[in-house]
Amino acid sequence: MNRAADVAIAGSALVVASPVLALAALAAKLEDRGPVLYRQTRVGQDGADFELLKLRTMVVGAETMGAGLAVNEGDSRITRAGRILRRLSLDELPQLWNVIRGEMSMIGPRPTLRYQVERYTPHQRRRLEVKPGITGWAQIHGRAALPWAERIELDVFYVEHRTPLLDLKILARTPLALFNGTYKGATGGWSP
Prior knowledge:
- About 40% of the residues lie in helices and about 10% in strands.
- The protein is an alpha+beta fold.
- It has a two-stranded antiparallel sheet with strand order 1-2.
- Strand 1 and strand 2 (about 50-55) form a beta hairpin.
- Helix 1 (about 5-30) runs antiparallel to helix 2.
- The longest helix is centred in the N-terminal third of the chain and has 30 residues, at about 5-30.
- The radius of gyration is 16 Å and the shape is globular.
- The two termini are about 30 Å apart.
- Residues about 185-190 have low confidence and may be disordered.
């Protein structure tokens, strides 16, 4: 997807979603008075690090507790408001700012963590040839319910075959994909 389309879609989505985003942010804040936003370093296009934004859905300091970076369904670190935000994928809305800032695209492989990228094969590194996306080919084919290697293969397929028509197909199928599995299990979606 080109930059102008990314900015237009992300900007419009932010305007439309702003009331929902405000209510979700308020719910996250009222839950335990912690920060509303969760910021995490992810790997973007060409292996460059950037700060991914999400609404915080877990207790403060969750990365240092329990399963660490992995999140399982029913994880006790997830707040009550966080369960709803995750279920509806509302926690992802702040990533529209990542798109406007040019760090992400509306469509592309989901951004991953540095330790995961360090384990990529040369073929898997192809997914870094494009900006990471809010949604993508792997998301409409099962999201985190898919094995890690299969998700990466779907991402590489997208990189090798991306067209405006494929992007439209992904956008059209994304709403249905939002209600599929979002939990990655004990390895955080990574099976070494």
